[in-house]
Structure formats: structure tokens, C-alpha cells
Amino acid sequence: MNTACFAAWIEEIARTVHAEKDRLTRLDAAIGDADHGANLDRGFTAVSRVLAAKQPETTGAMLTMVGSTLIRNVGGASGPLYGMAFRQMGRVLGDTPDVSIAQLCTALEAGLAGIQKLGAATEGDKTLVDALAPAIQALAQSVQDGVKPEEAISAAAAAALAGAEATIPMLAHKGRASYLGPRSVGHEDPGAASTALIFAALHAVTTR
Amino acid sequence: MVGIVLISHSGPLAAEVAALAAQIGGQDVPLAAAGGTEDGGLGTSPSLVEAAIKHVDRGDGVILIPDLGSSVLTARLFVGPDVMIADVPFVEGTIAAVVSAGADMSLKNVLAAAMESRSFRKF
């Protein structure tokens, strides 16, 4: 993946987040404060604007820009969380011109570590970690098995989606939904749902 | 003197808690409210928090007091050797922190005093 490929991914995230804005907000209305869709849409709209004005020259600089722009513009918990993840990914990739699946996996692992440092969530807490961690595990397994990049990304997207759906019966231990206790059960976590969208967007651009 | 920054999802909530704490703890303590988004909506703004930290920093350190949710995550973005977060009840913790800062206590001691408010009983 080169900078053009990352730019296409980010544009696709912005497009799908905008298209799914109302669904994400509805999920958040059930167990949070009903702003996840609107917040992420505002963040990625700002990212698109920055990207259109001037495309960063390296893969690392691009993801760092995405992270910093999200932190400044989202306004909810997903701003610092996704922002930190993209910034950590950018730091790991640096000026790598053509990122392999193994390198993408390492960068995502750093992103997950950043999210966990900030939010202290682990798998099973009903947060975006429940979609992100299995996606990274699927990607790592694919790297180990030596499958084709498209197949690796397809497996990661499927794992993220399954991870998001698996949050439905969970009791929230972190984030705003944790204030609801048992009433958080029966709803998909909005952060896990948006993480699944981010991986679906990656899958969409790599199979074009 | 240690500076205090209140971070809330709501601009008016942070501003009113700051006003209350200033009245009880003294007008001399550098205290700033960073609530809501830049356009006045509900949420947290890292830019407002950053500006508030600069505003109250007198060189003796700054304590951040978040209310809940994204306020905590936004606060964590700014933690460093001279900027600490207090995991305390928003109103009681703020008053305890402002009173101790007003008594010229060190950053560590202001944080400790704020933390004591976690065990305050109302009756």
C-alpha cells in the first residue's frame, strides 16, 4: 500500500461514515449520547478537506495527519481514540513507501496499544477494541499463513464485523455505555460498528 | 500557584462549577473551564483544553479535572510531568483542588487533596 492507496482508504472511510452516519448515531442513542455518527462524520469530513488541499508525501505523514485532524474535530470520545490510533500507525510507518500487510499489521497493533493506553479497555468491555483486536488477529494469522493481501484484508474485515456483532450481548465495562450497567446489553457498540466500517472500507478499496 | 482546568461535555456545566469553586476557594487561583465543543455544542474540544492549560499555567503545574466520557480521554492527551489528571467527583474534587491550590500547595499535594474528596460523605 502506497500513499495513494492510503488516501483511497481514507476517502472511502469518509464516504461510508457519511452514508452510515444515522445508523451509528442510532446505535449511540441506545447506549450513549447519540452523537457518534455526527461526530465521526465531522471528523472525517475535516480529514477529506485536508487531504484535498494537500496530500501528505509519506504514508506515515498521511496517517499522522488523519489522527491529528480527528482529535481536533470529532468532539467525542472517538476523537482521541481513533486519533491516537492513526497517529501511532503514522509513527510506525514513517516514510515506508510501500506498506506490506505485515507492516500494516504492526502499525495497527501500535494503534490498538495507543487506544488501550488512553481508554484502558480490553476485549469484552463492549468497545471498539472488540472489533479492532480480532481484525488485527485475523490479519496477523494471514501474514503467518502467507495468504494474498486481498484475502488477508478480507479476513480482517470479516473479523471486525463479527467482533462488532459480538458486542450486542455484552455488558459494557468502559465508555459512556458502562453507566447503563445491564441496560447496555442487547445493543451493538457504536465504536465497534464504526471500526467494522473502517475495515470494510479498506476491503472495498483493495478489491477495486 | 497550581492551575486548575475543568473539562466537561458541557460548556455551561464547566463554567458554573468553576464559578462556584472560585467563590469558595478564592479568586486568586488560576482556574479555567474548557467545556463543550468550539461551536458551543456538547462534547469536548482539545483546542479549548489546550488554551485553558496555557491560560492557567503559572509554572507550578496544572491539574485537569474531567467530568466523564470523552472529557477523560481528551484530558489524557495532555498529561505530562507538569500536567496531571484528578480522578475525582467533578464538584467536590474541584473545590478541594482550588482550596489547596489557593493555599499554595505543590502540584502533588493539590492532587492528593482533590483525591481525598472521593471519600467525602454528604451526610
Describe this structure in words.
The complex is a heterodimer of chains A (208) and B (123). With 208 residues, chain A is mostly helical. Chain A has 9 helices and no strands. In chain A, helix 1 (3-19) crosses helix 9 and helix 3 (36-53) packs across helix 4. Chain B is 46% helix and 15% strand. Chain B is built from 5 helices and 4 strands. Chain B has helices at residues 11-25, 46-56, 70-76, 90-102, 107-116, and strands at residues 3-8, 31-35, 62-66, 83-85. Chain B has a 4-stranded parallel beta sheet, sandwiched between helices. In chain B, helix 1 links the parallel strand 1 and strand 2. In chain B, 50% of the residues are buried. The A-B interface holds A 33, 35, 39, 71-72, 74-81, 84, 118-119, 175-176, 179 and B 9, 37, 41-47, 68-70, 73-74, 76-77. Chain A: Residues 4-204 form the DhaL domain. Chain A: It comes from Streptosporangium subroseum. Chain A: InterPro entries: DhaK_L_YcgS, DhaL_dom, DhaL_dom_sf, Dihydroxyacetone_Kinase. Chain A: Keywords: Kinase, Transferase.
